[in-house]
Every structure is written in structure tokens, then in C-alpha cells.
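Kindly review this protein for my students:
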Amino acid sequence: KNQVEQSPQSLIILEGKNCTLQCNYTVSPFNNLRWYKQDTGRGPVSLTIMTFSENTKSNGRYTATLDADTKKSSLHITASQLSDSASYICVVSALCSTGT
């Protein structure tokens, strides 16, 4: 059964502090993992896309890590700002295979 779980469900931090969001998944076979930021009333915006071979990817103050062996990812936000107040979504895509 393919599942994706994020933690924590909600988080309150002081402006300027760092924070980390976690994503655990059981999706197999794994294709890629994406982190999105969604502001209230707006559509999700892609922060990063990671494939099996990538361990770390940065996008400004956002740094995503991926451990494909333990099926875990984290999104680290450095020096948080008021504009970081949003929903963060972890999406894991399975690798589709076609039978003959």
C-alpha cells in the first residue's frame, strides 16, 4: 500500500528561526518526490523535485533532503519569514511500468 505521511501537522515558530518538515513514504517503485508551498487561497507552487539519486537540493532558503533507502525526506527552512506562513505538501510519484 502506497502511503505518504507528513509531520508535524502544524508548526508555529518565531520569525528568523529555522524549521524542518518531515515526509515519510512507502511508495514503490519510486519515481520522484516534490515539495510544494501553498499560500491560502492560491494554488501550490513547486519548491523542489528530487529523484532517487539526489540527496540534497536547495532553492533559496529552502533545502530539501532525500534518503531513498529509508524513504524519508525533509524540508528545511532557514531564517523563516512571515511570507513562509503556508501549507507545505510532499508529493511522491510512483514509477509506472508498462507490461507487454
User: Anything to note?
Assistant: Residues 16-94 form a domain with the Immunoglobulin-like fold (CATH 2.60.40.10). The chain has a mean pLDDT of 93.
